[in-house]
Amino acid sequence: MLQEFWESKQQQRAAFPSEGVVVYESLPSPGPPFVSYVTLPGGSCFGNFQCCLSRAEARRDAAKVALINSLFNELPSRRITKEFIMESVQEAVASTSGTLDDADDPSTSIGAYHYMLESNMGKTMLEFQELMTIFQLLHWNGSLKALRETKCSRQEVISYYSQYSLDEKMRSHMALDWIMKERELPGVLSQELRMALRELEEARKAGQELRFYKEKKEILSLALTQIYSDPDTSSPSDDQLSLTALCGYH
Predict the structure, then answer these.
(1) How does DSSP classify residue 76?
(2) Pick from 187, 233, 43: which is nearest to 125 by CA?
């Protein structure tokens, strides 16, 4: 049913035309409970939240969660409209120390959020989710702070990254950042990976969208693999690392 839903959606509305359809991933395990993830066109990811005694059961449970979210995403309330933006900004103001006046100032967090929503007018929340995940990762990774120090405005950063998808190149640059962090503070990679795995498991069991947590795990695992599989090539000079990182930002 999930496969047919997205195939039909792509044929009718050309949604996510550059993406595949539905991708399943089962975690290797010698025995139950089994874990399965399903990634939808556009990148949104869901997993089984029940305790599953077989891989097939885990796959079906993950598909069920993804199908429910896919159908829910079709509701008018899940599409970004002027009314939706107004309500979202008001909720953001209520949960922070900002004001409604900040919504017109892109240099503030509220203003940046407002700008991102307006730039994606008409899209559904699953379509908007990929861009949000990119900025969640940039914030977690420390990249947004580095960009602010170069005097880039929030609006410039949003406009730049809105043109890109979360791909292997972006993951590699973020992994490089964590390799640099590991050199400065040995052990931070393993500590961060343990936290990411715990967050991913908790979010999966709660039936939440998992892209952000899963990407964190993939980026940190990539960084660890690069460090331990080829330590000579993962230890260039600080100048070389800084230059490579900046190439990723610009």
Answers:
(1) G
(2) 43
> According to the 3-state scheme, what is the secondary structure of 78-140?
HECCHHHHHHHHHHHHHCCCCCHHHHHCCCCHHHHHHHHHHHCCCCEHHHHHHHHHHHHHHHH
Burial class (CB in 10 A: 0-12, 13-18, 19+), 31: exposed
Q: How far apart are CA 65 and CA 144, in angstroms?
A: 32
pTM score > 0.90 for this model? no
Contact criterion met (CB below 8 Å) for 89 and 52: no
- Cβ–Cβ under 8 Å, residues 2 and 38: yes
- Inter-residue long-range contacts of 179-182, CB under 8 Å, 24+ positions, other chains counted: 179/223, 179/226, 179/227, 179/234, 179/241, 180/241, 180/245, 181/142, 182/223, 182/227
Per-residue pLDDT 10s for the chain (250 aa) are 999 998 888 777 655 554 558 999 999 999 999 999 999 988 899 999 999 999 999 999 999 999 999 999 988 888 999 999 999 888 888 888 778 888 888 777 788 888 888 888 998 888 888 888 988 998 898 887 887 778 777 778 888 888 778 888 889 999 999 999 999 999 999 999 999 999 999 999 999 999 999 999 999 999 999 888 765 544 444 433 333 333 343 3
CA distance 12 to 81: 22
Distance CA 136, CA 41 (A): 19
Distances (CA, A) of 174 to 54, 182, 186, 215: 35, 13, 17, 10
Give the C-alpha distances (Å, rounded to integers) separating 50 from 31, 70, 81.
15, 19, 34
